[in-house]
Write the structure tokens for this entry.
Amino acid sequence: MLYSGQAVSANPSPLVPLDANNPSSGSLRLFFGLETAALSEQMVRAGEPPWRGHQVAEAIYRQHVTDLDGITTLPKPLRQRLTNEGWQVGRPRISQVFTSVDGTERYLVQGQGIDALTVETVWMPEGDDGEQGDDGLDAVAAPPNEQGKGWHRATVCVSSQVGCAVNCQFCLTAKLGLQRNLSAGEIAGQVVAVFDRQAVEVGRDRVNLVFMGMGEPFLNYDNFMSAVRLLVEEVGLSPQRMTVSTSGIVPGIERFAEEPPETRPKLAISLNAPNDEIRSEIMPINRKWPIEAVVDAVRGIRLRSRERVTFEYVLLGGVTDQPHHAAEVARLVRRTGLPAKVNLIAWNPGPGIPYTMPRSEAVEAFRRALANEGIPTYLRRPRGRDIFAACGQLKRTVEG
Ligand code: SAH
Ligand code: SF4
């Protein structure tokens, strides 16, 4: 890991240590990112009863309150005192919105004031079909949304780092390099900010989260998992409606295998190639952790009943989309012995990236070839291509 992100909720100190590259930003006292126990601890330190921590958690994680003075369950003098002591809610903020013709929205999200960097979060009403075949959760037709929200279900694509260090040759985010890790509050905060904007009702609305935005979640493991715990325990989401995608960081997958099922999302592996030779070419990380090492680590996970591992496969025209590639992928997936499904993604173009989109006949032939081998295979619909919101296009493209 090149930059040391801070696991805010795991840190007993309320101060968010600074990014060494940005010494001028001062120390911040942020509620957002602390779990209830840590909030209670802070209230006790302030001479208050511990249940004040629950009031803060309820306000910031469930009621979407964004400024300290809006936490009206706290007495006004206490709000004043906490403000004077430098406390703030510190929830990440949507600073810009790009809307696609297909209803997808791409957001630039301002972090917690550690610096001025923004990350990207994507809202996809009706999802992108990547969740098909998951646990039968979406097998029944979604009931019409009674609140007239204009969508029946939705997927939020969440970022875990600013930029990415992994350097996959086909991905626009890679061009940024890694700028810094996001804190747990910045990862979970993207979700709460989007829920606030879209008036999502937790427990009622059918919303899936995919940690497939900018960055490699397993190279920011502690903050990523702290964010998941916040989303499960504080916001009230089910980990079975969350999927984390990794390029195959083996030590991360091994740690993930140790996580308790109550807070472990589902796993997707960016396979993207039929063999080590091609994979090493398009994903240099494969030289460090080749396919078999990744699959071995995945075998260590105790899957829930009916849970499947997703293999994501980006189809690059001429490079990974040929019929003999499909046959090889089918053999590879079968050999893993894992309950698996394959999500195909037609490559989304980006400036300066030397690949071509697969032809639609090649995509369909690839899908059919895998399905004929008995492998559940789904095609991810590209969402928000016109606003650079689709997979692999996240690069803070302000021109949108
Ligand atoms: N870093 C993680 C998660 C973010 S990328 C990972 O790589 O798994 C999410 C998915 O988008 C990955 O499966 C990745 O292979 C895919 N992807 C990257 N660039 C793409 C592009 N230009 N077109 C289509 N999919 C792309
Ligand atoms: Fe990073 Fe994922 Fe893009 Fe690879 S595909 S560079 S791991 S964001």
Summary: Residues 170-171, 212, 216, 245-247, 270, 272, 312, 314, 345, 347-348, 350, 391-392 surround S-adenosyl-L-homocysteine (ligand 1) (CB under 6 Å). The chain has a mean pLDDT of 89.
